[in-house]
Specification:
With about 375 residues, the chain is an all-alpha fold. The chain has 16 helices and no strands. Helix 4 packs antiparallel against helix 9.
Length: about 375
């Protein structure tokens, strides 16, 4: 006899209905943010600095790379599954696995709206960030310097970190890790965009990410306009952080640092009043730290080792933001508190949406392919 097992096919919602069910709150938040950002630009007379397409090319390129990696992983997993389950008719089995486990139609339906909207929202974010000098003068740095000194026993935080981190190879490693945050951002958005479960965690990350851009990266960054240690002397003429910049330049002669190139890029954009990809100078609060913390909050719920990995990355980002001169330590502390508040608030609001609790599609780890005729394994009992 031939051993076989049967299990009913998993229910499949209509793709558009499924997409709206899962995406409605992230989509509404993204469209609202884009609309408000556009309105602010128009009312401020700065519409010439506003763009909704700045990140379209880069975003789609990064998502294409992530999609290629996912496709390779899917093919490897599919071949491994066929090799271990040894179906009598491999092509029939392959079609069943793709249809019931990978669910490409549903994933495209829920993922594409997010992949389109997030780069547009990112363009709106950078546009508003680049407008900060026109909306508010950079006059909070002295306050944050005083707060940093008070919180750290009369010393500047970068000075306290220097005995531990002030070694050229260490600085180079931190420099590389610090600027990898955008790769993790794109990968996290891509993975969650095409995820069918867990719905609530997916929506919570995407909405909190958008709120962080709006509240921390635009609203508070404008109200508390500051440039950070590395730009403090060019802006004010005060050489308070000259020892830090001198150290970074010295390291750069031995180990080229992306930090100095990016800082020059940001300063050129500020001096020219241009809206550039990745442009805009802002220190308080730190959106880098907010993003790194969001990675921890979401990945620890998905995969414990990745949660620990992103936790290490978060610590490196927090230390690196000070060591590389991008931020005052207080920028990161405020960002941590506000990001946790936004995360908790978003989670509480999503708890009211019972539609996110419907289990229309099982977790992939528990899903088994429907056994149609021809899928029986070749193992005789």
């Amino acid at each position: 006899m031939v051993a076989s097992s049967s299990r009913p096919s998993l229910p499949s919602a209509a793709p558009i209905a499924l997409s709206w069910s899962i995406n409605r709150w992230p989509v509404v938040c993204a469209l609202t943010y884009i609309g408000v950002a556009w309105g602010i630009a128009m009312l401020s007379g700065l519409d010439d600095q506003f763009s909704l397409t700045a990140y379209i090319g880069r975003g789609f390129s990064m998502f294409a790379i992530a999609g290629g990696l996912w496709a390779i992983g899917t093919v490897v997993h599919l071949l491994f599954t066929l090799a271990t389950e040894r179906p009598a008719r491999p092509l029939v089995a392959m079609e069943e696995i793709i249809r019931t486990r990978y669910r490409p139609i549903e994933r495209l339906a829920v993922g594409l709206p997010i992949l389109v909207l997030m780069p547009i929202a990112g363009s709106a974010f950078t546009s508003l960030k680049s407008m900060i000098p026109a909306l508010h003068s950079f006059d909070w740095d002295r306050t944050f310097i005083a707060w940093d000194r008070w919180f750290h026993g009369g010393s500047q935080p970068w000075e306290l970190l220097q005995p531990l981190l002030g070694h050229a190879p260490v600085t180079r490693l931190i420099d590389g890790a610090y600027h990898a945050w955008f790769i993790l951002l794109y990968l996290t958005i891509f993975v969650l965009a095409f995820s069918l479960k867990p719905r609530r965690l997916r929506a919570q990350f995407l909405i909190t990410c958008l709120l962080a851009w709006a509240v921390l990266g635009n609203l508070m960054a404008t109200a508390l306009a500051s440039v950070g240690p590395i730009f403090y002397q060019p802006l004010t003429g005060d050489p308070l952080f000259a020892p830090l910049t001198d150290y970074l330049r010295a390291v750069d002669t031995e180990f080229p640092l992306a930090t100095l190139k990016i800082q020059q890029y940001l300063w050129d954009g500020y001096a020219g009043g241009e809206m550039m990809i990745g442009g805009g100078i802002s220190a308080m609060p730190s959106l880098h730290i907010a993003s790194a913390l969001l990675f921890v909050l979401v990945w620890r719920r998905i995969n414990r080792p990745l949660g620990w990995g992103t936790g290490v990355f978060f610590v490196v980002m927090l230390l690196g933001s000070v060591h590389l001169g991008y931020h005052y330590a207080i920028d990161g502390y405020v960002s941590i508190v506000l990001t946790l508040v936004l995360w908790k608030l978003t989670g509480r609001l999503l708890e009211r949406d019972r539609g996110l609790d419907r289990t229309a599609i099982e977790p992939l780890a528990n899903a088994a392919p429907a056994r149609r005729p021809g899928y029986e394994t070749a193992t005789a009992s």
